[in-house]
Specification:
Low-confidence stretches: none
Radius of gyration: 31 Å
Number of strands: 0
Shape: rod-shaped
Oligomer: single chain
Distance between the termini: 105 Å
Mean pLDDT: 85
Helix content: over 70%
Order of helices and strands: HHHHH
Number of helices: 5
């Protein structure tokens, strides 16, 4: 790889990282809204946000696929690339992207925990309702016992 090729690769990689960061920042906002909707138990809005997230993630993956060969080429000549102007900026962008991914994953963990807590609360409520129903059914049997069959009529026919 010539010095000119190296500079071009860094420029291309930087542009790709900037595009990814833009998408990741949008994903941070979507993840935050999903977190809020998880707390509110607004599953319709959660689904809408999920669709937006899927769209952004597909775009992010497409950008990443285009960057993969450039990153591989730069990795192969990392020592030389480190001496080119702008390399440290690219490293900073890469770290920023990693920090955004960590932030999104952290928010997702909070959303998952919120939904798990909601599921536990739902199960507890169902168990309570079932127990109450069983108790009321037993109480009803005490208040209004079933009428015994007329055994005499049943025997004689």
């Amino acid at each position: 790889m010539t010095d000119a090729d190296l500079r071009d690769a860094l420029v291309e990689y930087r542009a790709g990282l900037e595009a990814e960061i833009g998408l990741l920042e949008q994903l941070v906002h979507v993840a935050s809204r999903q977190r809020s909707e998880s707390d509110k138990r607004d599953f319709e809005r959660l689904s809408v946000e999920g669709e937006e997230r899927d769209r952004l993630t597909r775009t992010l993956v497409a950008v990443e696929e285009r960057l993969h060969p450039v990153r591989a080429a730069l990795t192969a000549v990392r020592d030389r690339a480190a001496t080119v102007a702008g390399y440290s900026d690219v490293v900073d962008l890469r770290q920023r992207a990693a920090a955004l991914v960590s932030r999104i994953l952290s928010t997702d963990e909070e959303s998952i925990q919120s939904l798990a807590d909601a599921e536990l609360a739902r199960r507890a409520a169902v168990a309570s309702l079932e127990q109450g129903e069983t108790t009321l059914a037993a109480y009803r049997r005490v208040l209004a016992p079933a009428v015994a069959h007329a055994a005499l009529v049943d025997r004689r026919g």
